[in-house]
Amino acid sequence: MRALMLIFRREFAAYFATPLAAVFLAVFVGVSTGMTFFVSNFFDRSQADLSSFFTWQPWLLLVLMPAVGMRLWAEERRLGTIELLMTLPVQPWKIVFSKWLAAFAFAGLALVFTMPLWITVNWLGSPDNGVILASYLGAWLMAGAFLAIASCISALTKNQVLAFIGAVIAGFIFVMAGFDLVLAAVRPWAPDVVVQVIASMSFIGHFQRITDGVFEASALVFFISLIAFALWLNVQILDARKAA
Amino acid sequence: MAVGQALVETRALIKTFGPVRAVDGISFTVGRGEVVGFLGPNGAGKSTTMKMIAGFLEPTSGTAFVAGFDSQRDPISARNHLGYLPEGAPAYPDMTVADFLAFVAGMRGLSPAQGQRRLAELVESIDLADVWNRRIEALSKGYKRRVGIAQALVHDPDVLVLDEPTDGLDPNQKHEMRALIRTLAPTKAIIVSTHILEEVEAICTRAIVIARGKMLADGTPADLLAHAPHRDESMPQLVKTTPLEDAFRHITLDQAGV
Known about the structure:
The complex is a heterodimer.
Chain A: H1 2-16, H2 20-39, H3 42-45, H4 51-54, H5 57-69, H6 71-79, H7 81-85, H8 92-112, H9 116-124, H10 129-154, H11 160-176, H12 180-186, H13 192-200, H14 203-211, H15 217-243
Helix pairs in contact in A: 1-8, 2-5, 5-10, 5-11, 6-10, 8-10, 8-15, 10-11, 10-14, 10-15, 14-15
Chain B: E1 6-17, E2 20-31, E3 35-39, H1 46-54, E4 61-66, E5 69-70, H2 75-80, E6 82-85, H3 97-107, H4 112-126, H5 141-153, E7 159-163, H6 171-184, E8 189-194, H7 197-203, E9 206-211, E10 214-219, H8 221-225, H9 243-254
Parallel strand pairs in B: 3-8, 3-9, 6-7, 7-8
Antiparallel strand pairs in B: 1-2, 1-4, 4-5, 9-10
Helix pairs in contact in B: 3-4, 4-5
């Protein structure tokens, strides 16, 4: 337990050791609100809700979460510190989990910084705050899933740029899973059940149900199991590289 | 643990990377009080062997034991007895020396109070007071190396595996590092890799010569000298070499069949 906390603290502090955190938070808040006001025309819609904010979250997180997660393992490998970390008397899964948790907490912080928007809609009208809260939680979990994928891919390389690109591509497939672009490529040769499974992997599909106010357990279970699977895979990758 | 009992043991360690056999059947034991110098040309398999002892790499076959624990099957116990300085003395550049060492102490299971006490000792013995609150990225090579040593000593381990601890240090720093290793030697089993031959004479009780993944010699520095070919003193030498260098060249060039 202590090891988990120590790694979490180190990793979380590492984001703030460079201007990276400030730049990232500024970009995230700037682009999120910019999209809400200028692309989705928040005011013209005259509706007291945040759907014009949340619509963009899957796309924004798709690009920005790999930027947060790309360093998790690639940087350790480049610096050589992975040799220190992995020869400490701690089980690898604890290290994988706490590193991800630090990135996840950082993503949570970024979402918190957009909350003035939430206050604004409450000042302008009376939105359904339950749905907004659920949507925030949904966005955070989706961010966690993107981060778990990024962490996993980061463990494959010491090049952060490659880790970033790989994580965006993998994330993009999950975002697009419910769209015809992906399904049309699978449908001609795969049995229906496979197509169904792929469609059910869609980040947008699960996230949209949450923002529509249908907070189903299935979306929650989906994101949490995906995170668990990606982190499990992350541990396996580290183990396989040890034997390589 | 009884004095003289093997604290490090490798049994027929083999590591292949694709078609390359980096380590090819290395077996030896190191007891308490011994300082073993790993000697060999670059790419001989020294670091790979050390990584397998530390449990960072899994051997293709063979076993490494630290304090009697298999470094693959029982990694946590093995690591509790091991202090490891990886090649290049890596450390987190964004942390201060104090934070970094406190982090390692915590991960090594020392309580905050124990950690503070232990770090206070290490600041003294490794002479880190001047840079204690400086970020590691701002440190000179010599100080970085010392931080790496401090990190390996935090939990006062029985076994020290140091990959090129004096690489890149100036002559004074080299001297201090060697003095430190000597003072640690009586209570620990220490393995030091180097390609600086004078280091072997200066600090090692035993030297193991490795080239192309194979062990070519294992003995005291004096035994190694016996390998030196007889030098005809009347012949002028173009490049001045020491007898130990002659022995090293003789062993690694002749026996590896180059």
